[in-house]
Amino acid sequence: MHWVPARVARSFEHDHPEPPCPYREAREALETRENKLCLAALTEMLGRRDYGAEEARRKLRHAGFRASAIDHALERAQELRFLDEERFLVSYIEERLRRGWGRLKIEADLRQRGSDPHMLPGYPDRFFSAEDDLERACAALARKAVPERNAFERLVRHLMGKGFPYRIAAQAVRIRLDEEESA
């Protein structure tokens, strides 16, 4: 027996109230309907925000669609450029940089979503430089109060939690502590 996602069954039942038909015809009609509904669900998701292909695949699988319908929907969405991995990666990285995230945290988050930023042409140099990282780390520290005890360690740990490498975090903390002493 063939499992049918609830969304597909409801749609099929609503549009096909005729008497039972041969199994093969019913199965083909259900598969066609599932492909259409899966693409519609993907388009709806992409209308809210961009997704990487693997993250979209997981969400569609969680919604109950079968792998064949998901593959069909992803392929069609890529043909129509609704789903574009490079566009997703660029916008995701740029948005996280605006939020003050460091490279390590961005890469870890993308890996968790099933995307690889290294597929982007010019990555990482296109997005990250030591000067920019230091500037973002200093900006993140400007909003943070300097702790009374263990200031260096706590501030470095804070920046490393935001995804900055130790070298950049330590340099930014030294700058902040020097500014604090001279004030």
UniProtKB/TrEMBL annotation:
Keywords: Cytoplasm. It is found in: Cytoplasm. Pfam families: RecX_HTH2. One of its GO terms (biological process) is regulation of DNA repair. It comes from the Bacteria. The keyword Cytoplasm applies. Residues 84-114 form the RecX second three-helical domain. The keyword Membrane does not apply. GO terms for cellular component: cytoplasm. Belongs to the RecX family. This is Regulatory protein RecX. It comes from [Collinsella] massiliensis.
